[in-house]
Amino acid sequence: MEQLLAYRDRFPILSDCTYLINHSLAAMPAAAEDRLLEYARMWRERGIRSWGEGWWDMPITVGDQIGRIVGAPPGSVIMHQNVTVAEMIVLSCFRNPGARNRVVYEDANFPSVRYLYQAQPELEVVAVEDDAAIVAAIDERTLLVPISHVLFKNSEIQDVEPIIRRAHEAGAYVVLDCYQSAGVVPFDLAALDVDFAVGGSVKWLCGGPGAGWLYVRPDLAETLEPTFVGWQAHARPFDFEPELEYAAGARRFLTGTPNVPALYAATAGYDVIEEVGVPRIRERSLALTGLLIELLDAAGFEVVSPREGRRRGGAVVVSTPDHAAVHRELGQRGIICDFRPDAGVRLGPHFFNTEDELRHTVVELSDIVASGAYREHAGAAARF
Ligand SMILES: Cc1ncc(COP(=O)(O)O)c(C=O)c1O
Hints:
The chain is of the alpha/beta class. The protein has 14 helices and 13 strands. Strand 12 and strand 13 form a beta hairpin. The chain binds pyridoxal-5'-phosphate (PLP). Pyridoxal-5'-phosphate binds next to helix 5.
């Protein structure tokens, strides 16, 4: 624990406030600033030569670092801007699905994922109640099963193995959205035998915005032909040939010019996550969320996220009288968190948070509710 707390110095924002929003925009490592300066230096001093000195291959080299964190072999993860783009690339491999045109997911799937599939006229979306219902809904008409590993609203870990097994039995593909699990819950994509996986970097990976990722199972990558494609996906991009010839492996799932500055910034977060190690982060996360649940129970709050460790992701969600107003008042008291409508106030401690920060948060939360201090923000529509 002492060793983990030594990492606090590397996250400047921790000295200014109680930062419990690592499930949304995790604390920035100071090293991210140095990386961005290094990016600017390259641009300034090396100019066009920067492409050959690392920039062009960054979607692959940075993807390999993600691969080490999520148990994917080298060359199987590539970087994109966000999950929506990554899922669109997957979707673009299945343009004329015929009778196998169903997409099965659960209601609690993240909205942008839901919207993307809903917007495809050739697909029939079947939205079900929970992870167990997904297993039951998969049949030979199912093409894709885009699921969240950890649900964004209540931080519940989903039972993904039976879904993957059933999908494969029925000939369907699974797209596992690991945004809320990567960096805080250990898992191994190769062992899960999942077909595709996606995620981003703003949350537990501490990598900031603009660095989404896509994993494609290596044997599958050789056979699929994405139709959302760009010149980075060509076998010989610098020959500028008129016709498309797909690159081998995951490279064919690239599009155009990569988001270089975001990739520079992101690796600072991945470095810390790799250094600490996800199993150690998980151990600390379970201890902190366990304590938070105890404190909230003792203060008389209703915890609406899972209690059992097996189902508990990185955040704890607590029900309060007026989520938006309570969240606003917490922010004014220097406690940074968020809320989701119909769910509650989300508190997401990372490995660098302390027990005292959690005690302080619950004391303030109790005061805000008991004193009615939140009422002055009635009608608050805070989005962040
Ligand atoms: C589970 C999950 N998926 C996806 C996203 C975001 O998707 P995108 O990268 O398209 O913004 C989030 C949160 O922002 C999330 O919690």
